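Per your request, structure below.
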């Protein structure tokens, strides 16, 4: 409404302008006191009138969109800002996701080098925990553990929760489980990590065409020829050192 009033010329303004023009023309003897145009100026008056109307029309159309854009609010944006922020992730989760997106993906087969599963239950390899924490700070880490029962999976999650891994970048949905070594190989192919740490020689062979870098953790003296062309380390600590952590 304000824009409409500013850009249109009121009737009183036009009448006042008309009186001023007529007074000027009479004083300049362009028209007679009876307000009749001299023939020589008829066409001039017509051209001036058309030009004036065209100028005012173009000025109104050029200015209106800019004013409307300036004064127009966006109800959807305002409603989104006023609504509860229930659909947004917590700041810590958000920051870890963004940092994970900028870091290279590292997957680790944990059996034997980080997690030991026996008939007595599940336990962590204590000397491997510092190396895990270093890797969580430098890579987008995925842990894949071969388990037999749901109870074992819960124990693995519980033990990891007692470390600082989740606070240092490891995300819970990236702690994964499988029931067979072949199943782990399929998961790793789908993840397509930049580096994979593996403990099974058959899985190493199956992943060579799909994973850029594979590190085998085991005994280099008993390792088969299928892993002879990949780096061989004895522990997760040696893996962390090979990846740049001392």
């Amino acid at each position: 409404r304000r824009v409409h009033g500013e850009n249109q010329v009121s009737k009183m303004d036009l009448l006042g302008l008309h009186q001023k023009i007529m007074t000027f023309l009479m004083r300049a003897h362009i028209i007679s006191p009876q307000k009749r145009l001299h023939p020589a100026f008829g066409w001039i008056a017509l051209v001036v009138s058309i030009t004036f109307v065209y100028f005012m029309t173009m000025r109104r159309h050029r200015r209106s969109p800019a004013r409307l854009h300036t004064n127009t609010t966006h109800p959807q944006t305002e409603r989104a800002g006023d609504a509860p922020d229930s659909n947004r992730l917590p700041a810590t989760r958000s920051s870890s996701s963004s940092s994970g997106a900028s870091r290279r993906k590292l997957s680790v087969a944990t059996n034997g080098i980080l997690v030991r599963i026996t008939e007595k239950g599940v336990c962590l390899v204590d000397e491997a925990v510092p190396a895990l924490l270093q890797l969580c700070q430098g890579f987008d880490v995925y842990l894949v553990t071969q388990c037999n029962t749901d109870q074992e999976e819960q124990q693995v999650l519980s033990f990891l929760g007692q470390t600082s891994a989740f606070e240092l970048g490891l995300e819970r949905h990236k702690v994964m489980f499988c029931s067979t070594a072949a199943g782990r190989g399929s998961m790793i192919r789908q993840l397509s990590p930049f580096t994979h740490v593996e403990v099974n020689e058959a899985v190493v062979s199956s992943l060579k065409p799909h994973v850029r870098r594979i590190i085998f953790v085991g005994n280099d003296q008993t390792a088969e020829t299928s892993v002879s062309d990949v780096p061989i380390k004895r522990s997760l600590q040696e893996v962390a050192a090979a990846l740049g952590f001392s």
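The chain has ten helices and eight strands.

Regards,
D.
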